[in-house]
Known about the structure:
The complex is a heterodimer of chains A (445) and B (190).
Chain A: H1 10-26, E1 50-55, H2 60-73, E2 77-83, H3 87-97, E3 102-104, H4 107-112, E4 118-121, H5 128-137, E5 141-144, H6 152-165, E6 169-171, H7 179-189, E7 196-203, H8 224-228, H9 254-258, H10 260-270, E8 280-286, E9 298-305, E10 310-316, E11 331-337, E12 340-345, E13 352-353, H11 355-358, H12 375-385, H13 393-412, E14 416-419, E15 424-426, H14 429-433
Parallel strand pairs in A: 1-2, 1-4, 2-3, 4-5, 5-6, 7-10
Antiparallel strand pairs in A: 7-11, 8-9, 8-14, 9-10, 11-12, 12-13, 14-15
Chain B: H1 5-12, H2 17-25, H3 35-43, H4 49-66, H5 72-88, H6 92-105, H7 108-116, H8 124-133, H9 137-149, H10 155-164
Amino acid sequence: MNKYSGNMPRRSFLKTIGAATAAGTALGFPQVIPAGVLAVEGKPGANSKLTFAHIGIGGMGGGHLGDMVGRMKRGECNIAALCDVDDQHLERASKVAGPQADVYRDYRYVLERKDIDAVIIATPDHWHGVQTVHAAERGKHVYVEKPACCTIEEGKAMITAGKKHKVAIQVGSQGRSTGDAYAACRYVVNGMIGKVTRVDCWHYASPGDGGGNPDSDPPPYLDWDLWLGPLRWRPYNSRYLHGVFRWFLESGGGQIRDRGAHVMSVAKYVMQADDAGPVTVEATGTAPTKGLWDTAVDMQVIYTFKNPDWVLTWNQPGKPVPMENGKMHGYGAVYHGSKGDLVIWGGDGGTNTEKKAREWRAPAGAKEVYRSPGHKEDWFNGIRTGAKTIMNIEAAVGVANLCILGNLSFILGRKLQWDQAKQEIVGDEEARRMMSVPQRYPYCL
Amino acid sequence: MAMTVQELLAKIKDKDDKVRSATWLAAGEVGAPAVRPLAALACDTSTELEVGRATKRAIWKIVRSAGRPGADAEKNAVVVELLILLAEGQPTPLMREVLWMLSEIGGDESVLPVAKLLASQELCEDARCCLQRMPGDKSLGALRAGLAAAPHDFKSAMADALRARGVDVPDVPSKKLVPTKSTRVKPVAR
Lengths: 445, 190
């Protein structure tokens, strides 16, 4: 903990700023104090404004930008740069963020800027690993959309980079930061449904592809080479983007990697199993019958855990459980315990649980679990104090690995054995090779 | 009973997408003998777009089925067929697919044919990735030789493949963090 971190009393902090500013003025220095000046390297001072850049500003990236512009207008932060490979996204985002934000196509220009403390990455999934590692190498704190990574080896590199460069990485599985996830976690951890031996997730199916679209030239406003980035070269096809990148195994991984990164994130949080991994993974499913998309339409994955023994299943579409108001929810999970069940609907920002967990009052001596102050607030706290974030990169990679292994089992059509300690697939050479996908230079780890 | 190659080829050309998909999903059981006939169908310019996609998926299914544990004879037979495709020369998109297939199941026997493609302007990057992924000293040796022979603008990529395999390459700078692409978009009026 450094003396300018979040634990410093505000009065002492202001006193320090006053002294520093007076000294600076006397020496002819400007009085504007950048975020990093009053702190050790990499940890901006408690009351200093953080300066952010947004990389990827369509879809979820647009949502993040809107949120951060609100914070900027309240005087809480600066937004210094916007980056996207689609000029149309850039034009729109510049109008939202305002004239102080520079615009870039190539994220590496953003990473070169020393005035930027942190980046919010909301690019397609195949960029998450590379951009997070590169940002960490430049000393930037990172908020990256879920899923954390597309391959096992990407995840390892992200963890290593985060540790080596001492940056706070928060992954956008924000369900963990909701009040209902906290309530459910506390309820389960305190044994209110007994020993949990099975968690069944349900989620609506992935879409099939109508097919028929041939390859073509990319539109003039899009840098196709930079959109592809780490992926192997292929001609442009309009069915690859924007939001539909999710329906490709390479770039999105389907519902299991997109929303599984929410539902199974909450499951690992509630089960307090961030350090645990499955010993076996077995997937079955149906592939699209035509078109370019290749992610499973329907899918079931069974993950078995040992010590403690429990089973996690991903069921697409599975059997939805009605909410307490009688409405149906497209995704969620049922936690089966020796003394009863608990349902958690959603798993993203719209997470809900049963009234019995929401209204449970913890008795004296009850076990407590970490309660996030909000997903972004938790990240800001991690930046300022070095505290581990609720969806830190280790936890997020653990969840992404579940999704990746499920897809690998589906692709290969066979059960996989996983060694959690070694973080590798065992007994299957082809599957082992598929733990990494060599990336196109220079867009690589 | 497994399909014959002829049955596979007939069904994969079916007008019904459900028949085509059921066919490529079952292609693994047909195995190596179907690889080159399917490749020929994929390369035939008169092949309908969706049939071409199903054909490519059928070859991938064969590769992934043959790569399962305990099926070395099947795997070796498929690798032989893939290497014949490489040696014969195919349209670039198919050659690219074959390289990535070999990256999953190819062994030492594949290294030299793949390494030769490091000299191809269109396929060198895929060949580099394939060699990076194939384990063993032989592929590592091919990457070292590839670095020595690479033209100036490909040396950084070759060096990176070696680094990914744990080799220190101090004399070739990395370009990974060097920005190169500018936008014509201007920020909203300042």
